[in-house]
Specification:
Elements (H helix, E strand, L loop, with lengths): L1 E2 L5 E5 L11 E5 L4 E6 L5 E7 L2 E8 L2 E4 L8 E5 L5 E4 L5 E5 L2 E6 L2 E5 L5 E5 L2 E6 L2 E13 L5 E5 L5 E6 L2 E4 L8 E6 L5 E6 L5 E7 L2 E6 L13 E6 L5 E8 L3 E9 L2 E4 L11 E7 L5 E5 L11
Antiparallel strand pairs: 1-7, 2-3, 2-28, 4-5, 5-6, 6-7, 8-9, 9-10, 10-11, 12-13, 13-14, 14-15, 15-16, 16-17, 17-18, 19-20, 20-21, 21-22, 23-24, 24-25, 25-26, 27-28
Length: 308
């Protein structure tokens, strides 16, 4: 494994879980250029980054960005567990697990989430799947996007109307929608709470929190842009406190996306909660139980790649 510098921003939670008008987060620059996808409770981060030899998956740990090896347009670390194992997609389009510098091939297609037992969920052959103990369990046509330490999985299935699902103890639950046609589960915590997005009765998609059998509309950071392709907000990550991070679209002079934190019933823009100004945090992808957040900003004007 080679160690390279990469540009990633981790937002470190400073003063507890409540939100206020005060600055709550300090920003740590992990390198450039890169995109962060996942974080564990030790503050280790995974995603993908770019070098002069191409795009590569990385693990950020103890102040260093570790090149996990391989090159390819689609290669990425997508999820990370508390043991530092990473799942994602290899340069040849296969789902993989990286453990202590070694890559295990799970076969085509994509690994999206991994729990502390090393169980992985993702997609294979257009189906949502779980890889566990060397076996692949087919959940049906769609995608598995998140898995918790109880082995519960969320994602979406096309045979239930392209709806978000919760798979638990061999049972599949259709999570429904926010009065619209479709929903997608993207993140899940150990309590079985799910976040993702669903369209609403007016046809615009909103971030949701599914908890105790109900899908809650998390709203947006502002009026939904008329040219946002139907997306107003998306929940991407959730921790065991039920805090959600994601992205919200808002119409300003130009269409922009903004990173948000949803906590204690409020959606807040992360740009307003940090101790320094960045070129707009365009989306937050993951949050750990300590409240650390991985977020990504706009594309660099010279390289064309995102900052994170």
């Amino acid at each position: 494994m080679r160690i390279r510098s990469c540009f990633l921003l981790a937002l470190s939670f400073a003063w507890g879980h409540g939100l206020s008008a005060d600055v709550l987060y300090s920003a740590t620059d992990l390198g450039f250029p890169s995109y962060g996808n996942g974080i564990n409770n030790a503050g280790q981060v995974t995603g993908h980054a770019y070098s002069d030899t191409g795009r590569y998956a990385f693990l950020y740990s103890n102040g260093q960005v570790i090149d996990l090896g391989g090159r390819g347009n689609g290669i990425s670390g997508n999820g990370i567990n508390n043991a530092g194992q990473v799942t994602g997609i290899s340069g040849d389009g296969h789902a993989v697990i990286w453990t202590n510098g070694q890559m295990m091939d799970l076969g085509p297609r994509t690994g999206n989430g991994i729990n502390d037992a090393g169980q992985v969920t993702g997609t294979s052959g257009g189906h949502a799947v779980i890889w566990t103990n060397g076996q692949m369990i087919d959940l049906g046509p769609g995608s598995g996007n998140g898995i918790n330490n109880a082995g519960q999985v969320t994602g979406y299935l096309t045979d239930i109307g392209r709806h978000a699902f919760l798979y638990s103890n061999g049972q599949m639950t259709d999570l429904g929608t926010l009065a619209g046609r479709f929903s997608y589960g993207l993140g899940i915590n150990d309590a079985g709470q799910v976040t993702g997005y669903s369209d609403t009765a007016n046809g615009y998609a909103h971030a949701f929190l599914y908890s105790s059998g109900q899908m809650i509309d998390l709203g947006t950071l502002g009026p939904c842009p008329r040219f946002a392709s139907g997306f107003c907000s998306v929940g991407l990550g959730i921790n065991n406190a039920g805090q959600v991070v994601g992205v919200s679209y808002r119409e300003t002079f130009n269409l922009h996306t903004y990173a948000f934190l949803y906590s204690d019933g409020q959606m807040k823009e992360l740009d307003n909660l940090t101790d320094r100004a960045f070129d707009n945090l365009r989306g937050a992808t993951a949050i750990n139980d300590g409240g650390q957040i991985v977020a990504n900003s706009g594309r660099h004007r010279l390289s064309g790649h995102s900052r994170a």
